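A common beginner's mistake is to predict each chain separately and then try to dock the pieces by hand. The better habit, illustrated here, is to supply every component at once so that their relative placement is modeled jointly.
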Amino acid sequence: MYLIYLFLTIALILVNLAGLTAWVSRYLPAQASARVLGLFVLTLAIFAFEHLHGLGKLNWIWPLSTGLALWCLSTRQDRPFWTGELVFMLGFAYGCAWRFAFPNIDAGSEHLTDLYFISNFMGGQTLPAPDRWLAGSFFDCYYAFQHYGAALLARLFNLEAGLAMNLAWAVLIALLASLAWEISSYFVSRFSLKMLLLVALISGGNGLSPLMPFMIKDNATDTAGIENNAITHVWASTRFYGMYDEHVNTPLGLAIAGDPQKPDFADHPDLPLETIGYFSTLGDYHPPLGGFIIALWTLALSAFLGIRKVTDTTQGSEAELPNGRQADALAFFALGLTPALVLVTNAWVFPLQCLLLSSWLLFRQWKADINWPALIIGGVAGFGLIYPFLSYFAPNSLATPIRWVAEGYHTPSRLLLAMHWPVLLWLGVGLVVARHSPWAGWLTLTLAMILGLSELIFVDDPMSGKYERFNTLLKWWSWLWPTALIGLGSVCIGLGGRVVKTLMVLSLSALLMYTIDLGRYWHYVSKPQLGQMTGNGWLKQDATLKELLVYLKNAPEGLVLESIEQGAYSSSTALSLFANKPLVLGWPDHLAQWRGNPEYIVNRATEIRAFYKGGLTDPLSFLGKFPVQTIIWTLADEQRMPDVRQKLQSQISRDYHWRAFYQNGSEAVGIWERRLLDSNQKARG
Amino acid sequence: MNLIYYIYTVLLLLVNLTGLTLCMRRWLPTLALARATGLLLFCAAAFFMEHFIGLGKLTWLWPITTVAALAILYVEHHKLDTPKFWRAEMVFYVAFAYGFAWKWAFPVIYPTSERITDLYFIGNYLAGQTLPPLDNWFPPNRFDFYYAFQHYAAALMGRIFGLGAGLTYNLAFALLMALPITLVWDFTANFLKQGWKRWLIVITFVVGGTGATPFVHLSYTIPPGLSTQQLGNIASDAMWASQRFIGQFDQRLNTEFGKSVFPSQVKPGWEPRELSLEGFGYQFYVGDYHPPLGGFFLLMIVIASIGRLEKNRYSRAFADNGSHDTTGKKCHTVPIKANSEGSDRRDRFALQALLAFTVPLVIATNTWVFPLQGTLVFSWIVWCYLNGNPPNWNALLTGGGAGFLLLYPFLTGFASNVLPTPIKWVHSQDHTPLVEFLALHWPLMLFGTLAFFAKGTRRIALLFAVVFLGLLLVSECIFVDDPTGDKYERTNTVMKWWGWIWSGGLVALATLLLASSSRWIQNLVAVALLLINWYVIDVARYWIYTDKSDAGKLAAHSVYTHDPVVRDLFRFLDKVPFGIVLENNYGDSYTDSGIYAAFAVKPTLLGWPMHLQTWHGSVSQAWILKDQIVEFYKGQLPDATKWLVANNVEYIIWNARDADQPNVWEHIKNSIDQVYAWHEFQSDPNRHVGLWVRRKGSE
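With all components supplied together, the output reads:
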């Protein structure tokens, strides 16, 4: 039954997106770009409006929007349009397959963080919305536009936040795939080469991937060992230096990573380069993906805007389109939107996006005209629409000064070469192709500059030591990778000579070694919650927690208190987030980091820990501060502190009623509910 | 006075339905299909809409719909003069009257089979909240785990006409049972001209038993010298003997014939599997407004639509033969009435869209038969291709798409809350014993075999034979693994599937075989149908011997309200504002717990916990709550007031059964008096029956 529902939900989403694309692409005849433009403008406009007034429930819209979409689609009978939609749908199917197989939103990586971001927007309140991880505060310290988009999807189709997150993830992958296909189609005509580019982008690794079999040799034969190896392979390429480098056991591995026996080996800085394939296994709905989309969108729009005409003079394939001026204006408008969009989507790559866009404008100014009015309108509109967000985000964001990379923190040249050899190769090849294609020249120079900058400067966030450059490189290198792969890959394969083409094909094919790793991951890693796309299958496998979740979901609104033993990356808060309820406190380490380590978060965490240990002298006073509506007492709490429940019961029973969901002798699991509700709420339940 | 009210209510309902039928007749070829489609669309559209916003009370609607219906009757009055119209309407009225008569004679809703459950389902929807509504048996949870579209439809009727819960139940039952009968009549009319043949099929469908019926009569004789009460019990047993034959009635046969043909199956460590076939006619006796009813309705829509779609081709085939079959005898076929090409195309589009529309609707109506309904429609599509006459995919996609879209908001909650019911292979010890299988299903197997020889109707008869016999075979290979086990392992599956297969197969195949030009086939089928109709005697005996003292009390609670104190309590509770009612818990299920709340359309603190467990899998909270309720009613629950307030209880029922416990009332009253005010409902100062109502402004 759930599969039918899932199928219908996906069908509805795809029909609505296709309808939107059909409408926008009438005016911007570059389908993938038009789809992204439609989505961004729509989401941004609602995002801006909800800063003035929250729109609450929006599920009444889908019947109307679906009708409109069907009408728009009924007018599009042309084959290219449906081919474009097919590419998008196949991308969606690929993304969906990953989430279908590994749907869990749990304590791993940033799953619950992303769910929390989305959850903040689920209520449809005026923005900034109340912070669901920090009672009494507002969610004003994070660039979560992408999560707002997922929440909007949930609100439009009345989805649970977890399902929306997994489906929105698949939408992001589909957008990336369709943009990559569009960019490559401007330069490459052979299907197989376009597929190579697409597969290398979506499931390829980085420069280390083809080297990895020669750096780390497996020797496991048992099932657990094979599964573990499958996971290691996927992680090793992207999180090699500073994390998986200690696994090396071959001469090549030792040459690149250094000798693990050396005393300073453990101090290796963590220098990651995360690819889309890696994100597929991770399942985080995290800002980098949105950043990639904006980067590829910029490339697609710039290619659309006639660079091909300038570069591809021998083929001269671009014909003047009808309504060309209008389409150009719209493309410039879209490009104007990108700085604002990247700021709210993935602020880390704002400088890179600005560099990419400004260098292209310089280049464009040199080669052709710029529609300044459209560009400026786009820029002004973009910043105008995010202005309400900036008005609270900017003062609350952490100071992140840009500093020079200090001596000793630079990437070792052997690692730089091992990890970035494809980019270095493409940059070199790009310079060769630049003789025929100024677009290739522009992109080569810009990306070379960005790579160089990443070695010279970094954003100085609160992390230090081993993680001094971690966040900067995590965001910048990961952004650089798909941009270079698709941008330079397409133009070099399309316009390069035989040698260039051969080099490109070989380098891209080498990256597919990671695709094999992904295949092994898919095959060997167990999928116990296959198909449970809401992401809470891991939680619902416990009958008591399942019952508790259903009850909490249907319970009246109110703050929930959950124990927080760990600072982060624990399953704490999952129950409340899946039940769509706000918490007194989420993961304290994350919250503290985002908000500049304020003491009150630490104090609150300490008080909660003391409460769950029965160490508060006046727990009612503590609970009354927020006030807490529901206190969750899980089996873990019970087993951690067997006698505390009775003590708490005697302390708080005046205001809180114990509702048991499991009782086995003296062991019990349940919740305390605050008695004082208004009578209307009581009657309605 | 009640009688006048009932007459007016039924008249209003019928006028509205006739108006709707005439309105829909513009797009559909027959009145029965128009009526069915109109109702289905209206309810599905309202169901869809109320998932966005609950419309609350709807009593303002009936004057408008009635005026609209009368206006349609006036505008289309020329159609009223035709005998065709009145014939179709009369079939509906007679069918409705038959169901109504059953409910008139046996109207009471009490804890037998699923009547109380169905009343509670309807009650969930009667308040008109935004869907999914509050679960009246398990607040504050939502009622989003059950396929209760037909209960929603009943509640919609109740809300429009301002009916009480019990009356809504009984009227909806009569209406929902009438609709498939009209569709069967409609289907037979496509192929059979002679009235007796059509009546024979309709009667077999409505009053007939199963293949086991003749064996029941041959294997069991009524012992002489029984009292009226015993005769009543035997008459009641005879009503389910044909349906619950395998594993139940076949274990108590008392003639030599019965014992020799169906020897006892009991073996050490193994109980005979209960495998029942609950067809359409049996539902009148059961009296439950349960999902199989809606399933039969949707099944008959498909059969009637297919019949209508194939009618012209069939008629044409006979017309080509000069109205004579190969034996030279005169054919008894419906004369061809040439439709204009445009209206024919429109009809075909509407019928195919309707076929597809029913498939998603089955999910919300009777999920159990969703695969069966899908198979039937899919098989028809394949059959169309085999005939070189592809279906209209635009129509199928429009109907199916519209159905799924209208159902989508329902599926949002339902899909994630319904218990997973994996399909498994039937274990060797759970298969139906061969002799019993043949005894129960011989008519369908006979009809399926005869389909090969049915001249004139062979192709379409084979379609139905392959579908229904194929599904019968499948039902022996796989089953839906629900929480029940042992002798009940397959019970739920076959109960749902066999009833559907039997009813559909009987109507479709018997009609097409009687329409064939082979006289011997007609005779054989007629004899088989007569044997099945042996059950008519059982029905008659049931009517004669069963107590009908509650006849005409359509509010359905007379078994309780014949006691004036209970009557007053019912009336009181009916009028008070919405709030949770607490009633004592007398057991895990099928008890009187919750009946006050159910008839008053209010939530009860806890419904039947065993049912909740069946629906939700694990409900530890409910079991803990049940224990607390029992303790409360024994006066042993500590902090009773706090517990009541925390559970948002507004009303506490203290009935005669609770009052039998000495001194408990006083103890409870003293402990909760500050917050709950006692209302006495009888005059004996030494005994207390009544209810506590939460004092206003109390915490």
